[in-house]
Amino acid sequence: APEASKLAAALRERGASVESISATELRAFGVGIDAVGDVALKAGVAVHALSEEHNSLEEAFLKLTTHEGKK
Fold first, then answer.
1. How far apart are CA 70 and CA 50, in angstroms?
2. pLDDT digit string, tens, across residues 21-63
3. Taking a C-beta distance cutoff of 8 angstroms, is the pair 10, 45 a contact?
4. Which of 5, 8, 38, 61 is the most exposed place for a label (fewest CB within 10 A)?
Protein backbone atom coordinates (compact mmCIF):
# COMPACT_ATOMS: atom_id res chain seq x y z
CA ALA A 1 0.00 0.00 0.00
CA PRO A 2 1.36 3.41 -0.88
CA GLU A 3 0.50 4.83 2.55
CA ALA A 4 2.47 2.12 4.37
CA SER A 5 5.45 2.70 2.08
CA LYS A 6 5.23 6.44 2.69
CA LEU A 7 5.19 5.94 6.46
CA ALA A 8 8.03 3.39 6.30
CA ALA A 9 10.19 5.86 4.38
CA ALA A 10 9.42 8.65 6.84
CA LEU A 11 10.27 6.40 9.81
CA ARG A 12 13.55 5.35 8.19
CA GLU A 13 14.44 9.02 7.73
CA ARG A 14 13.91 9.36 11.48
CA GLY A 15 16.44 6.55 12.03
CA ALA A 16 14.04 3.67 12.67
CA SER A 17 14.39 0.17 11.27
CA VAL A 18 11.11 -0.80 9.61
CA GLU A 19 9.77 -4.24 8.75
CA SER A 20 6.72 -4.72 6.54
CA ILE A 21 4.32 -7.25 8.10
CA SER A 22 1.59 -6.92 5.47
CA ALA A 23 0.40 -4.41 2.89
CA THR A 24 -1.05 -2.28 5.67
CA GLU A 25 1.02 -3.20 8.74
CA LEU A 26 4.53 -2.16 9.74
CA ARG A 27 6.81 -2.96 12.65
CA ALA A 28 9.24 -0.20 13.63
CA PHE A 29 12.33 -0.60 15.81
CA GLY A 30 14.39 2.14 17.41
CA VAL A 31 11.58 4.66 17.71
CA GLY A 32 8.89 5.10 20.36
CA ILE A 33 5.17 4.87 19.83
CA ASP A 34 4.69 8.63 20.27
CA ALA A 35 7.33 9.33 17.64
CA VAL A 36 5.62 6.94 15.20
CA GLY A 37 2.39 8.90 15.62
CA ASP A 38 4.19 12.20 15.14
CA VAL A 39 5.99 10.97 12.01
CA ALA A 40 2.72 9.64 10.57
CA LEU A 41 1.01 12.98 11.18
CA LYS A 42 3.83 14.95 9.55
CA ALA A 43 3.84 12.54 6.59
CA GLY A 44 0.06 12.89 6.20
CA VAL A 45 -0.54 9.17 6.76
CA ALA A 46 -3.65 8.05 8.63
CA VAL A 47 -2.82 5.48 11.32
CA HIS A 48 -5.68 3.38 12.65
CA ALA A 49 -3.84 1.56 15.43
CA LEU A 50 -0.51 1.69 17.24
CA SER A 51 0.75 -0.79 19.80
CA GLU A 52 4.00 -1.39 21.62
CA GLU A 53 5.62 -4.78 21.89
CA HIS A 54 7.94 -5.60 24.75
CA ASN A 55 9.98 -8.76 24.88
CA SER A 56 11.38 -10.09 28.10
CA LEU A 57 15.11 -10.49 28.50
CA GLU A 58 14.58 -14.25 28.31
CA GLU A 59 12.71 -13.96 25.00
CA ALA A 60 15.44 -11.76 23.55
CA PHE A 61 18.12 -14.21 24.68
CA LEU A 62 16.27 -17.17 23.15
CA LYS A 63 15.85 -15.34 19.85
CA LEU A 64 19.57 -14.57 19.77
CA THR A 65 20.76 -18.03 20.77
CA THR A 66 18.39 -20.37 18.95
CA HIS A 67 17.99 -20.99 15.25
CA GLU A 68 15.60 -18.31 13.92
CA GLY A 69 14.20 -17.82 17.41
CA LYS A 70 12.76 -21.37 17.58
CA LYS A 71 13.57 -23.98 20.19
1. 27
2. 999 999 999 999 999 999 999 999 999 999 988 777 777 777 7
3. yes
4. 61
- Provide the H-helix boundaries in the chain: 2-13, 33-43, 57-65
Asked whether 30 and 15 are in contact (CB, 8 A), the reply is yes
Exposure string of 3-41, with b = 16+ CB inside 10 Å and e = fewer, is: ebeebbebbeebebebeeeeeeebebeebeeeebeebbe
Single pTM value for the model: 0.73
Burial of 66 (0-12, 13-18, 19+ CB in 10 A): exposed
